[in-house]
Amino acid sequence: MPGLHNTTPAMAQSYDTPEGVDIRGRYDPEFAAILTRDALAFVAGLQREFRGAVRYAMERRREAQRRYDAGELPRFDPSTRFVREGDWACAPVPPAIADRTVEITGPADPRKMVINALNSGAKVFMADFEDALAPTWENLMRGQVNLRDAVAGTISFRDAARGGRVYKLDERTAKLFVRPRGWHLPEAHVLIDGEPAIGCLVDFGLYFFHSHAAFRAGQGAGFGPFFYLPKMEHSREARIWNGVFERAERVAGIERGSIRATVLVETLPAVFQMDEILHELRDHSAGLNCGRWDYIFSYVKTFRAHPDRLLPDRALVGMAQHFMRSYSHLLIRTCHRRRVHAMGGMAAQIPIKDDAAANEAALELVRGDKLREVRAGHDGTWAAHPGLIPAIREVFEGHLGGKPNQIDAAAPVDAITEEDLIQPPRGARTVEGLRLNTRVGVQYLAAWLGGSGSVPLYNLMEDAATAEISRVQNWQWLRHGAVLDAGGVAVRATPELLARVVEEEMARVQAEVGAARFRRGRYAEAGRIFIRQCVAPELDDFLTLDAYGLMVVHHPRGTPSKL
Ligand SMILES: CC(=O)SCCNC(=O)CCNC(=O)[C@H](O)C(C)(C)COP(=O)(O)OP(=O)(O)OC[C@H]1O[C@@H](n2cnc3c(N)ncnc32)[C@H](O)[C@@H]1OP(=O)(O)O
Ligand SMILES: O=CC(=O)O
Ligand SMILES: [Mg+2]
């Protein structure tokens, strides 16, 4: 990076930090090659320039929620009508990412998975520091090491558990996008001016610092690096990202507009801000994506004080519900009008190894979901697992007939209204739903506390976003005393009912995973946290924020030990 240079840590076993920066995570020489003095100075510069704006944006989120709690409904902002109605377009799509028909996602660590994803045959790999990654210090830092090596083309892995099989990059690999954490999450192992760093600026800053030059020379064909931006609620948050990108480009001495980012529209307030978000990022945009799982979570959170908008069982809230269909259709129209990609989302099914018929049924659900997306106008979509890529490619490529995307397709003219976007989903609420939420929520939390951010549970992918639905749905039903169906008998959701369900489901989980694994894992702790979160008088904003303190392990400077 012009004007900056890498330095070797001055002392063994201690990070060499610039003024005002303190690293409280475990020392590791591999991490020290990421946490160089200059890289940390770059991150600290971002933090110092943008922390005030981030604090303000988080306060505005809370203020908006107070208005929704008082009965207001989310809606389009009359003061930005000129942006929605104006005739403008985002910067042209970089040729390197014109074709994004299938994108695989996965955590930035383990290393083997990163290599598998890049070799998977997908057009893009989104390496995740967010929903799919438990933000332990080790995961985050190993993720940074993996991405640096992936962009350099040197990443490899020897799998001792597989007889020493060596993993390396193929000749052709997926293009890399990186998803930093959301604005709300701190990074407690990096202190800047005495306070925890903003997590996403650490993720973005370290990756950008080490990889921008190699990325632009190799993967991006002159553009990049590329990012996915999660969980935003308002265009003012996109404006901060735009400022971060401009500062990064300036410091690195690269052309303005090199960095591109796809924003996940995965909160209910953001669906009313899509034009505004694209407008803020118009020189840095790589479109929008339907983050359907967080979107459902956000619907519950936004309407937490609205008893007339209770969700049915989680399994019934799919893309066929009117509010979900309306959201994806509006996203497609908005993106195409602004000349950028409209990306689809994640089907939760994953391959089922030991049951061919069940596996085929799961694949058929994925095909159906992808067919709906491509017919609606999406330009590409997500795959959770390499085993799904051939089927998804077939659906998208079959429909697109050789074109890399359908940004040029004519848009339907019927209007999508505010009411369409918030229409309550329909379906039954059951005690079985409460049980499943509990069983899944507790197991996910146990895995997350143990360092795994995405796990297979009952043949579905579970990550932070899907687990959030389980938590907030239980909370919502209890909060409003929802009447649940218990095999034909109506029962009210109460803390007593939940306590019984938790006890029974914990016993079931123990039987399923076995006593030894149950003892070794953090199931009991997860059960306690989950029940507390479901009965809390005020809904916690994020389970990952509430429980984050449990994975923070501070180390005195220079003291090596294990996390
Ligand atoms: C709501 C959202 O934000 S969605 C986006 C965030 N979520 C994700 O990214 C989830 C990504 N997917 C995953 O993490 C995993 O696929 C899981 C946890 C769902 C399932 O994992 P597992 O059961 O361990 O997968 P499985 O045992 O079938 O893996 C088989 C092989 O595929 C590889 N694999 C599985 N998923 C992925 C992936 N997403 N990327 C790359 N490789 C993968 C494994 O590394 C393994 O490779 P190997 O044969 O060389 O050892
Ligand atoms: O990030 C994706 C989602 O569905 O949430
Ligand atoms: Mg999400």
Which properties best describe this structure?
563 residues; alpha/beta; TIM Barrel; 2 domains; 8-stranded parallel sheet; 3-stranded antiparallel sheet; 20 helices; 17 strands; disordered N terminus; disordered C terminus; binds the ligand O=CC(=O)O
Write the SSE topology.
Blueprint lengths: L20 E3 L5 H4 L4 H33 L11 H5 L16 E6 L3 H8 L5 E5 L8 H16 L3 E4 L5 E4 L6 E5 L6 E7 L2 E4 H19 L8 E4 L5 H18 L7 E6 L2 H4 L2 H7 L4 E6 L1 H11 L19 H16 L4 E2 L12 H21 L4 E3 L5 H12 L17 H5 L8 H19 L5 E3 L2 E3 L1 H16 L3 E4 L2 E4 L2 H19 L1 H6 L2 H13 L7 H4 L17
Parallel strand pairs: 2-3, 2-13, 3-6, 6-9, 9-10, 10-11, 11-12
Antiparallel strand pairs: 1-7, 4-5, 7-8, 14-15, 16-17
Helix pairs in contact: 2-6, 2-7, 5-6, 7-9, 10-16, 12-13, 15-16, 15-17, 15-19, 16-19, 17-19
The protein binds acetyl coenzyme *A, the ligand O=CC(=O)O and magnesium ion.
The site of acetyl coenzyme *A has 24 residues, from strand 2, helix 4 and strand 14.
Catalytic activity: glyoxylate + acetyl-CoA + H2O = (S)-malate + CoA + H(+)
Enzyme class: transferase
Main location: other
Structural write-up:
- Residues 19-81 form the Malate synthase N-terminal domain.
- By secondary structure, the protein is of the alpha/beta class.
- It has 2 domains: 37-420, TIM Barrel; 429-551, Malate synthase, domain III (Malate Synthase G, Chain: A, Domain 4, Up-down Bundle).
- The protein has 20 helices and 17 strands.
- The protein has helices spanning 29-32, 37-69, 81-85, 111-118, 137-152, 199-217, 235-252, 268-271, 274-280, 292-302, 322-337, 356-376, 389-400, 418-422, 431-449, 464-479, 495-513, 515-520, 523-535, 543-546, and strands at residues 21-23, 102-107, 124-128, 156-159, 165-168, 175-179, 186-192, 195-198, 226-229, 260-265, 285-290, 342-343, 381-383, 455-457, 460-462, 483-486, 489-492.
- The strands form 5 sheets. An 8-stranded parallel sheet has the order 12-11-10-9-6-3-2-13. It has a 3-stranded antiparallel sheet with strand order 1-7-8. Strands 4-5 form a two-stranded antiparallel sheet.
- Helix 7 (235-252) links the parallel strand 9 (226-229) and strand 10.
- Helix 10 packs parallel to helix 16 (464-479).
- The radius of gyration is 23 Å and the shape is globular.
- The site of magnesium ion (MG) has 8 residues, from helix 10.
